[in-house]
Write a structure and sequence with these properties.
By secondary structure, the chain is mostly beta strands. It is about 15% helix and about 40% strand. The termini are far apart. The model has no long low-confidence stretch (mean pLDDT about 90).
Length: about 110
């Protein structure tokens, strides 16, 4: 079976090295053909802090929680374990807007 490559707007289960814990991540950036195989993501959390940077997106494959724009980071391909699903372009825009707000980018 060929290895599936993560794409922008997909939600994947990822091994983030947190005491044998995996969590859903939303893929934002994907590497080009001549780049290191590193993906930019926003993590999903079930421990909400109530900030304006948390974006709740209901999906059958996610527990109740939100994508936390303050947790934006990168992960290597080998840490992406399984595709869970996709979000809509409007939902992706919501997460992107939260990131821009947090980074104070107009």
């Amino acid at each position: 079976m060929p290895v599936q490559r993560a794409k922008r707007g997909e939600v994947w289960k990822a091994d983030l090295g947190l005491i044998a814990k995996t969590r859903p991540v939303l893929i934002l950036g994907t590497p080009g053909p001549n780049h290191r195989q590193i993906f930019t993501y926003v993590p999903h959390t079930t421990q909400l802090q109530g900030t304006e940077f948390e974006v709740s997106i209901p999906a059958r494959y996610l527990e109740k929680g939100a994508f936390d724009a303050q947790g934006i980071s990168t992960v290597q391909t080998v840490k992406l374990l399984k595709k869970l699903g996709d979000i809509t372009p409007d939902q992706l825009r919501e997460v992107e807007n939260a990131i821009l707000q947090w980074l104070e980018i107009d």
